[in-house]
Amino acid sequence: MTSLPIRPAPHTGPAAGEVIVDWFAGAARDLPWRRPGVDAWAVLVSEVMLQQTPVARVEPVWREWLARWPRPSALAAASPADVIRAWGKLGYPRRALRLREAAAAIAERHGDVVPSAVPELEALPGIGTYTARAVACFGHGQRQPVVDTNVRRVVARLVHGRAEAGTARAADLDDVAVLAPVDEQRAVRFSVAIMELGALVCVAGTPRCGTCPVRDRCAWRLAGSPAHDGPARRVQKFAGTDRQVRGRLLDVLRAAPEPVDAAALEPAWDDAVQRSRCLDSLLADGLVEQTEDGLFRLPA
DNA sequence: TACTCGTGGGA
DNA sequence: TTCCCAAGAGT
C-alpha cells in the first residue's frame, strides 16, 4: 500500500489579498506621508528618500524638505549645494540631484503638477519601476502593482514557497497584480499593505510568522519553511570602498561655508590615489565643482 | 546581469 | 565586534 503524503487541506477562506488589507487596518504604522491630504509631490519626495534608506532617518528630512520646497518648482529653483546640504546624511546623495532634476522636469513639462501616468513618471530622473508605481498608487490613488524588496520577499514565501526572493524581474509585477483585491479602493490599500507586511512581519532576518495574517496559506510554511537553496547573495562591503571615501569627502564639503583647497580634503582619506579618484567621480556626478582658482565646493 | 552608489541602527 | 540590511536606480 502506498503512503500518501500528509498535507494540510487547501485554504478555502478569503483570498490572501483581502486578508492582508484587513490586517493592515489594524497594524499599519502612522507614517506622515500616509496621512490624508498629503499630495503626490510629497509622496514622490518620500519615495525617493526611502530608496534604500530606513523610515526613521527619512521622517525629519522629509518634513524639512516639504516645508522648504512645497512645490516642484520651488525645489527646481534651489541650488544643488542647498539641496545636497538639505539631503544631509540620508546617503546616496545623487538621489538629491536627481530629485531636483525631476522637480525641474515636472515644473517645465507638467505645469508643476506631478504626473499620474506611470510612463510619464518613469521618464523622470531617479524614478524607476518601483517609484513610478508607488507615486501613481499612493499619491494619485491609482490601482497599480507596487513591488519593492519587501513585496518580492512576501511573494517569494507566500506564493512561491521560497525563503528568499531572487533577482527582480518584470514578472514580479504580475505576481502581485493577481493577489490584489478586485475593488479599486481595496487594491490601492493592498499595495501599501503587502509592503507593510514585508516590513513588519515577513522580514528578511527571522520572520515573525506567529503574527502573520496569512501564515495558514503561506506556501513556504506549508513546505516546512525550507532554507534558501540558491547562492548566498554577497554582502556589500563598505569599509575602504570608494563609497566610503566619497562620503567622507562630501562630508567635508557639506560642512565648509567657503570653497576649500585640495589640502583641506586630505584628512578625509589617507590614500591619495583613491582620494583623487573619488573626488574626480564626485565632480563627474555633479556633486562637487571646482572654482576658477582651483578650489572645491558643492555646486552653486 | 551584475555592479556601483551612503549611512547607521540593530541582531 | 561583526555582519546584515533598509520603500532602488542607473549603467
Question: How would you describe this protein?
Answer:
Mean pLDDT is 95; it is low at 1-7. A hairpin with a 5-residue loop joins strand 1 (289-290) and strand 2 (296-297). This protein folds into three domains: 25-139, Endonuclease III, domain 1, CATH 1.10.340.30; 146-222, Helix-hairpin-Helix base-excision DNA repair enzymes (C-terminal) (Endonuclease Iii, domain 2); 242-295. The chain has 300 residues and is mostly helical. It is globular and about 75 Å long. The protein is built from 14 helices and two strands. It has helices at 16-27, 40-49, 55-68, 72-77, 80-87, 94-109, 118-122, 129-139, 149-158, 171-177, 184-200, 219-222, 242-255, 272-285, and strands spanning 289-290, 296-297. Helices cover 49% and strands 1% of the residues. The N and C termini lie far apart (81 Å). The protein has a two-stranded antiparallel ribbon with strand order 1-2. The protein binds a DNA duplex (11 and 11 nucleotides) through residues 46-58, 89-95, 98, 125-131, 134, 146, 148-151, 167-168, 195, 198-199, 204-206, 235-236, 238, 241-244, 246-247, 250, 281, 285.
Shape: globular
CATH architecture label of the largest domain: Orthogonal Bundle
Question: Please, how many domains?
Answer: 3
Q: What is the third-level CATH name, the topology of the largest domain?
A: Endonuclease III, domain 1
Task: Extract low-pLDDT stretches.
Answer: 1-7
CATH hierarchy, class of the largest domain: Mainly Alpha
Overall average residue pLDDT: 95
Count of alpha/pi helices = 14
The residue fraction in helices comes out at 40-55%
